[in-house]
């Protein structure tokens, strides 16, 4: 046995390769039931995971027992998404087993990299929100905070994206086809979840109201599945508990025997739907109802689990805020506020005032968006039909809050209507953002800019009523996955230059700053970057049949496809560059490959149209010999965590070009910078703080500021005149609109382009010239290779602050009141 140790981590017993190889063979035989001659690659994957999981379980049980014995305050993180990605490398690396497992498997004739690539990405999230939750879970374990994550175990989750003739096609993501070797089913941790029905008032003999009893007409079970989340050096192992829906009566035999086979399985199908798909389409009533059911399903199961655990240890619930911090990751779990009230009052006999005090002191809420449509609200009739008791509680909370606002004598009638939990203009709706706000003692934004805008926009009136609640916690990323695991070449180079301390304290990576002007180090850095680019180029060639030159500048925009993220701006600039290269072949153009990746919501027409446009533009540019290979456009399908781990280390340029004031934070910007990409971006989200950290000379900032965007919108912005005043933009939009890139359907993009001329809400035209100028500035720096790599090295050295370890320590100290 060998041992690994740092000053901040306990001793870890690291088995030698021979021991690990023997354990893998035993697992293959007794836990998979296969011999080496018939074992498939999936069997070797399962056996390897089981061997490592056994070691994690030892740490897991120890951490759980210590948390119980020491009566540590626990954090409970409620999130509808956990985009955890593949766990094998994460666990092997955090336990210090990667090298020895590689050698052990090699001795058995098995390639670790080959079987690791077979592990599916858990389809439990959509984008930044879910990936942030995953980073937070890993960081909570790393900084030694006892925590549970709670979510839904989606069988299909987010769809698998294929591109057919340039169009996005959504297919089920069957990530559980080969089972999930990391999880443990906990049938004994099952909780009943109700929907619909009526509420009965129980009165005393003298007519006083004693309590309410909710009598649902529908009942399902939430069954727990636990996945251990191991921190760096296995300092702590926490639990990700995901709920799966099951019927209480799987089959109604009387109906089945009577021939009603569909009716006999109706309850089973309803329960199954709760944990089948992430974000069912809410463009119709059935989809809206399923979404609300999902949110209540996982919220009540989680709260019942939390209260049961607390009662078993402490005996009463009045100490809940002292021993439990429950955090709402966006508005999806906001229904937990009235649900905790219901449990405290109706099940555990508390009066309203005590229950409300406990609830507010227990919950914290992170807001992730300033987009009004992303702040959830539910039609009152739907809410009342599905959750009648919760509707009563929402009205009671609303009365409490509005009376408080009126009593302060600081609010107009219009302001009070905006504070209300019920939207009254038009269809009456329950505002879940307001509900989460009033039910929490802390409301945080996720970047400095976003937090200030929260105070001024979506929560301006609530901030005036509760001025001490809003605070900032700028997002972060885990450096274990987003540097140490995904970029081993850069990790090894950094260790060679500054030692190993940065692996335990990422702030120490600032020591690389001193090497930015070292020519020998820059050459090594460039070699690592090129190797990463070759890996991406090979992937693109294998999957798409497109050959790209690793010597070209790799310009990458990968994120959810949305108009505010402005993939359209990037595409239009690519068209303008294409026109310039053809028109001016004598100029010294820098070779560039523009990569796109991301999924569009199935019902989001314009986003799907933008994907089609990217592919249509790629088809034309990539086949045009006049371009001479100086520009290529590639859309990489089915962008997920595993693809990000390949694309981000390969990026030279990181596209963070959202309309100012609309991106809450972003975390892709942090991942790219940590892997040595320079950012081209607006002063939006965390770009503002990245600029402050890396310095003005090491980032390309362009475009309107948040205040300037608001001013344009308020002063009668005329995008047509802007487009007509920009020859390059006018030519690009004319080409798209007239069918140059869609000869099979010249009208395909007419409506999309008309939107630019008529409103241009996302300021694509307004920012185009500044963006194009910034791109030519990029070319100028890229032309000077030593200068480019010096800037890239400074980016790596100066973004250690954007670690989720730092973020979590701030949450622990300033919101959760948990020692770190």
Quick one: CATH class of the largest domain?
Alpha Beta
CATH names the topology of the largest domain as Rossmann fold
Shape: globular
Q: Determine the N-to-C terminus distance.
A: 31 Å
Q: What is the residue-mean pLDDT, rounded to a whole number?
A: 94
Return the domain count.
3
Number of helices: 35
Low-confidence stretches are 1-11
Number of strands: 24
Estimate the strand proportion.
15-25%
Strand order of the largest sheet: 7-10-11-4-3-12-13-17-18
CATH superfamily assignment of the largest domain? Glycogen Phosphorylase B
Structural class: alpha/beta
In short, what is this structure?
The modification N6-(pyridoxal phosphate)lysine is found at residue 671. This protein is of the alpha/beta class. The strands form 6 sheets. Strands 7-10-11-4-3-12-13-17-18 form a 9-stranded mixed sheet, with helices on both faces.
SSE blueprint:
Elements (H helix, E strand, L loop, with lengths): L1 E5 L2 E6 L2 H14 L10 H29 L4 E5 L9 H7 L3 H10 L4 H5 L11 H15 L4 E6 L7 E5 L2 E5 L12 E12 L2 E6 L5 E7 L2 E13 L6 E11 L5 H5 L3 H4 L1 H9 L10 H30 L5 H4 E6 L6 H12 L4 H11 E4 L10 E3 H7 L1 H21 L4 H7 L2 E2 L5 E3 H7 L3 E4 L2 H9 L3 H6 L4 E3 L6 H7 L2 H11 L2 H4 L14 H26 L8 E6 L8 H17 L8 E6 L7 H19 L7 E5 L5 H10 L2 E4 L11 H7 L3 E4 L5 H8 L5 E2 L4 H9 L4 H6 L2 H12 L11 H9 L5 H20 L1 H14 L5 H13 L4
Parallel strand pairs: 3-4, 3-12, 4-11, 12-13, 13-17, 17-18, 19-20, 19-22, 20-21, 22-23, 23-24
Antiparallel strand pairs: 1-2, 5-6, 7-10, 8-9, 10-11, 14-16, 15-16
Helix pairs in contact: 1-2, 1-4, 3-20, 6-35, 10-12, 12-13, 12-15, 14-15, 21-23, 23-26, 23-34, 24-25, 24-31, 24-33, 31-32
Pfam family, one: Phosphorylase
Protein name: Alpha-1,4 glucan phosphorylase
Catalytic activity: [(1->4)-alpha-D-glucosyl](n) + phosphate = [(1->4)-alpha-D-glucosyl](n-1) + alpha-D-glucose 1-phosphate
